[in-house]
Amino acid sequence: MAKETKEKSLNLFDYDAENKEKPIKKSSKKTKKNNVKKNQSNQKRKNQVNNKSKEEGTKDERFNFDEEIIIGLKRIDEPKKEEKKKPKNKNKKNLNNNKEKQDIKKENIRPNPNKVKLKAKEKKMSPKQILAKKKRQAVFRLVKWTSLVLIIIGAIIFTIMSPIFNVKNIKVEGNSYLSEEQVISLSRIEIENNMFKYNKKEIIKNIKENAYIENVEVKRSIPDTIEIKIIERKTSFMIQFANAYAYINNQGYILEISNKALEYPILTGFSTPVEELQEGRRLNKEDLKKLSDVLEIMESATSNEIASLITEINIENSDNYVLELKSKNKVVNLGDTSNLSTKMLWIQTFNKLEGSTKGEIMLNMNLNDDKNKPYFRRNIES
């Protein structure tokens, strides 16, 4: 039995060895012949198609073997093009990277040992000590900021007070009666002094001390020039008192007191005290009201070309202003300021009719009433 089992095992090993040594049989001869025949038939078909295309003379309509299905041949598919992967959103990557970096930073951040010590000390400190510390810190901040402000102010003052800004030129505009030298002397500005040394308000106040100055503007033109623009008051009337004349403008300001008589109408019958007739002052309220009537009379006389004939105006009675026409030897009792244009026409008429005859033109009546008519009264010489 043992021999038989050994022989059987040997036979099995021999069988495996025989099978390993035997080569794998290839395809049979018949299949080879069939494939050859198929290839030949395919070639014939291709040749026939090519010949037909040549005969027809068509170049464009050629037979495409890649598109045709040939029996017995397997179609070889073209390798698929790899689709380009769409780039992922960079922003998302950046955000993720930033988050990662922040996480890493948070992990790497370590508490400052000095701050930890300070906090520990503050915990140990009493409330009084904490208050004292806060007060010291507040005082330190106050000192720091005040010193900084003082440094800035000092720097500004130093630059302003430097000789670069010394006055070298003074320009005056708008003056007609006063000279440039008079205006500069009134301003009290000195050459080679720093322009920022002078206050504009003080300069204006100084110049306005002169009664002829109505308005002043002062401007600094850096680095070395001061500009002064003035508006002057103009003389319109005179007041005669104690062998002197007070020059007055149309606002009632007394501009100057002089011994010279200018060619302006003289106002008489005023109520302002002589003591108050000083340069720079104004007439009293009663005279200022009458002065507004006088201005109205002079405006009407100017439009009728009579203003140049008026040499004197008596304002004592507001119901009857008296005009003197010295060149015509006439006195006009004008009455009040009603019907001024009509009254001026009557003055022109009597001047033409009477010439230089001395007399009075009587217009102090209600001209709206037809019964009242102006008339001329001659002076009878004794």
Detailed description of the structure:
The protein is of the alpha/beta class. Among the domains are: about 130-160; about 165-230, Ubiquitin-like (UB roll) (Roll), CATH 3.10.20.310; about 235-380, Rossmann fold, CATH 3.40.50. Helix content is about 45%, strand content about 15%. The protein has nine helices and twelve strands. The strands form two sheets. Strands 6-5-4-7-8-9-10-11-12 form a nine-stranded mixed sheet, with helices on one face. A three-stranded mixed sheet has the order 1-3-2. Helix 6 packs across helix 7 (about 200-205). The longest helix has about 35 residues, at about 125-160. Residues about 1-25 and about 80-90 have low confidence and may be disordered.
Q: How confident overall, as mean pLDDT?
A: 79
Major sheet summary line: 9 strands, mixed
How does CATH name the architecture of the domain at 237-378? 3-Layer(aba) Sandwich
Shape: elongated
- What would you call the structural class? alpha/beta
Query: Could you estimate the helical fraction of the residues in percent?
Result: 40-55%
CATH topology label of the domain at 237-378 = Rossmann fold
In DSSP terms (H or I, runs of 4 or more residues), the helix count works out at 9
Q: Termini distance? A: 206 Å
Number of strands: 12
Strand order of the largest sheet: 6-5-4-7-8-9-10-11-12
What's the helix-strand series? HHHHHEHHEEEEEEHEEEHEE
Low-confidence stretches: 1-27, 78-88
Please indicate the percent range of residues in DSSP E strands (runs of 2 or more): 15-25%
Rg value? 62 Å
What is the level 1 CATH name of the domain at 237-378?
Answer: Alpha Beta
